[in-house]
Structure formats: C-alpha cells, structure tokens
Write a structure and sequence with these properties.
It contains five helices and six strands; from the N terminus they run αβααβββααββ. The protein is an alpha/beta fold and 246 residues long.
C-alpha cells in the first residue's frame, strides 16, 4: 500500500519594521514654492486709497470726423468737360499734354488731380493754378484757371563803361533771352557771370544787380545795373617762408 505524506512548511515570520515618525504638519514640503513676499509699503496706497489717474487719450471712435471735400464727393464720377482758362502764350494743347488724369471721359480721382496740377507747376510756366469743380449726379465738370509767368520783352544795361552792351548781352543771353518765360534763378546766374567777366578784366570790386520792370501784356523788362569801381592792379608780390627756393 502506497501512503502519501504531505508536509506543510510555514513561512518564516519577518522581523518587525520600526514605524515611521509622523510627518510634521507645520514643515513645508521640499518642492513647494517659497511663501510670497509681503508687499512693500507703497506711499500711494496708504490709507487704502489710490490717487486719481490722469485721463487717457480719447479713443479713435470718439474723435470728430471731418466732412468729405467736394473732390472726395466727386470721386469716381465721369469727367464730362475740362476747360483751360487764363493761358495766353501757351496753347491749350500744350497745357493738356501735361494732364494725365484730368481728361474727358475718365473717372475723377482727387489724387490724380493733384498730380496733374503738380506737373503743370513744375513746368515753371505758371505763377498760379486753380481747379474749379462742378458736379452733377453722375458727372464732373472741371475749370482749370492758370496765370502765366511774364515773358521777357527787353534786356537793358546801365552803368557799364569798360564793357559795352554787346559784350554784356552776349554774357547775359546765355541765361536770359528775350521772349522766354522769366526765371529769377536764371537772372541771378546771369548776374554772377557778369561779375565774373569784370573780374577777368581786373575789376574785382565790380558790382552787378538786376531789376524787373513790368510792361504791358504780361511782359517785363530786365534791367542790369553795374558799378564798375576802380580797376585792381597788382604792384608787388611777396613770398614769405620760402627757405629752400630763393
């Protein structure tokens, strides 16, 4: 007979572990942030009140809106007519050649009008340019009023003795010509050339000025006035400080 014997082996009891001491509830954990600092004493907040703040700038929506100009109201309308008034020597076709935006049939554009007026002004033909605008429901009529600069009718010289009129005319007409539109910058250049010519002849103290005299039909007389003074001569030349070269 076979007899089985079952032996039960019990687990060895473990040694008792000492209990962990209770955590100190008052101690802060290692990873916790430091306590916030107390705010410093702000004199502006003493007594629990803040001083009144200055009002800020007004919002854009609060700013008053300017009413549109007549040119802005006419934007996009078809140009029905462009009249050029006030020109005498300069033909309408020549004036119209400078207009790129102010043309019949085009849509009116205020910026284009400004550019065309500037183009006319840069020609130096005109002293004043005005644009009158008349609009209907769908169209615009423009009146371009110009005032031309005067033209030079005659050039005269006074006070010149050592240089005759023919000599001065040859010098001045390089800048100032009869029949041309007056240009004060060109006249000043002619004055300087007259002074330079006198200096070449030994009249270093010579003076030259000009005067614009109005004439009929928007024309002017240019009068050059010369004060020659005495001729400057060199009597002696002295060198100082030359030791190597006698």
């Amino acid at each position: 007979m076979l007899v089985a014997c079952l032996v039960l082996v019990g687990a060895r009891p473990l040694a008792a572990q000492p209990a962990a001491p209770p955590a100190d509830e008052t101690a802060a954990p290692e990873d916790s942030p430091p306590p916030p600092e107390k705010p410093k004493d702000d004199p502006s907040t003493r007594g629990g009140k803040r001083p009144p703040q200055a009002p800020g700038p007004p919002a854009i929506a609060d700013l008053p809106k300017l009413p549109p100009t007549e040119a802005e109201k006419a934007r996009g309308k078809r140009i029905e007519e462009v009249r050029i008034v006030g020109n005498r020597r300069i033909g309408k076709d020549e004036v119209g050649s400078y207009l790129k935006w102010l043309r019949k049939g085009k849509a009116f554009n205020p910026r284009g009008m400004t550019r065309d007026v500037r183009e006319l002004w840069d020609t130096a033909y005109f002293e004043d340019i005005e644009v009158d605008l008349t609009q209907t429901t769908d169209t615009v009529r423009l009146r371009l009023l110009v005032r031309e600069r005067p033209s030079i009718k005659e050039v005269k010289f006074e006070g010149n003795k050592e240089l005759d009129d023919d000599d001065l005319t040859e010098i001045a007409t390089k800048e100032v010509k009869v029949g041309s539109i007056i240009s004060h910058a060109a006249i000043r250049r002619a004055v300087q050339k007259i002074r330079d010519k006198y200096a070449e002849e030994g009249y270093f103290l010579a003076e030259a000025n000009y005067e614009v005299v109005p004439r009929k039909d928007n024309q002017v007389l240019i009068r050059f006035t010369v004060k020659e003074h005495e001729k400057v001569t060199v009597r002696r030349v002295t060198f100082i400080g030359n030791h190597s070269v006698p």
